[in-house]
Automatic annotation (TrEMBL):
Source superkingdom: Eukaryota
GO function terms (MF aspect): 3-hydroxyisobutyrate dehydrogenase activity; NADP binding
Coiled coil: none
Keyword NAD: yes
EC code(s) of this entry: 1.1.1.31
Biological or metabolic pathway of the protein: Amino-acid degradation; L-valine degradation
Protein name per its UniProtKB record: 3-hydroxyisobutyrate dehydrogenase
UniProt keywords, alphabetically: Branched-chain amino acid catabolism, NAD, Oxidoreductase
Reactions it catalyzes: 3-hydroxy-2-methylpropanoate + NAD(+) = 2-methyl-3-oxopropanoate + NADH + H(+)
Organism (species): Cyphellophora attinorum
Short name of one Pfam family: NAD_binding_2
């Protein structure tokens, strides 16, 4: 009879401890608030938006209306700071020019943040915070996404770009016979 070793399930990697959201306007606000409410209690959400009044409104709603711990959600000054501190980063921006600025700004942009080494003291609970997932959710033209893809790929980082179509279903009144 052959001797077999019992199989042990591979432990799951720890969940991300820090999420980042850039752009809390018409679309991003609700999506970011939903993330803030549903991430693990030990996780943190960093937000960034050009409009400080929108940031203040978001933080107040998170704490006052949704009862979130103020330490769980905080604002940062620049997208690059989010990239340095978060494992999962989402953007929801109003137009192509905003996406270009958020990604390409040499001092404060996402690409600038990706090109800087992550500090070892920011690694938490054994999770390698140098591994990033950046999800760009804005509706933008291929003439914007392709140069961003090329710039990020040139850094040795992988990108995944997909064209998609959005369908809206609108209910119609029933026709009576």
């Amino acid at each position: 009879m052959a001797h077999t070793t019992p199989s042990h399930p591979t432990p799951s990697p720890p969940p991300p401890t820090t999420y980042g959201w850039i752009g809390i306007g018409n679309m991003g606000y609700g999506m970011a608030m939903n993330i803030a409410r549903k991430i693990p209690a030990t996780a943190h959400l960093l937000i960034n938006d050009l409009r400080q009044d929108q940031v203040a409104k978001f933080l107040a709603e998170a704490v006052d209306e949704h009862g979130l711990d103020p330490a769980k959600v905080s604002a940062v000054d620049a997208p690059a700071e989010i990239v340095q501190r978060a494992e999962i980063i989402l953007t929801s921006l109003p137009h192509d020019e905003a996406v270009k600025e958020v990604f390409e700004n040499a001092e404060t942009g996402i690409i600038a943040g990706l090109s800087r080494p992550t500090h070892p003291e920011e690694h938490t609970q054994g999770h390698n915070s140098t591994v990033k997932l950046v999800l760009e959710t804005s509706t933008i033209a291929p003439t914007t996404t392709l140069p961003l893809h090329e710039a990020i790929t040139a850094m040795g980082t992988h990108t995944l770009t997909r064209q998609s179509r959005v369908a809206f279903l609108q209910p119609q009144p029933e026709h009576s016979p």
